[in-house]
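Appendix C reproduces, verbatim, an entry submitted by the partner laboratory led by Prof. M.T., so that reviewers can inspect both the input and the predicted structure.
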Amino acid sequence: QVQLVESGGGLVHAGGSLILSCAVSENIFNFNDVGWYRQAPGKERGLVAVVNVGGSTNYADSAKGRFTISRDNAKNTVYLQMNSLKPEDTAIYYCTARILSRNYWGQGTQVTVSS
């Protein structure tokens, strides 16, 4: 059973930074891509950033220029560095790992940005 465990969420003031971590129980090269989604209250879960097995990244427009996704292959860990945070970034952030059409999800970590 694939397990993804997020950490690093919390409360931060607008303009601040946070780094999220996701430890994956398997070799991350087993997956087509790994990354982050988020879900704000009353909204659908949406893409933040993903990195594929070849190292290519894809960011939501709202994340471009502020967030950076990276991975430590030796540790099977994916990171999301978030800078210049805004109140609208407040959401539960979920780590995901995808094999073909199947996504595995972590339990989520809350990020709250105060104005």
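The CA atoms of residues 27 and 34 lie 11 Å apart. Additional entries are available on request from the coordinating office.
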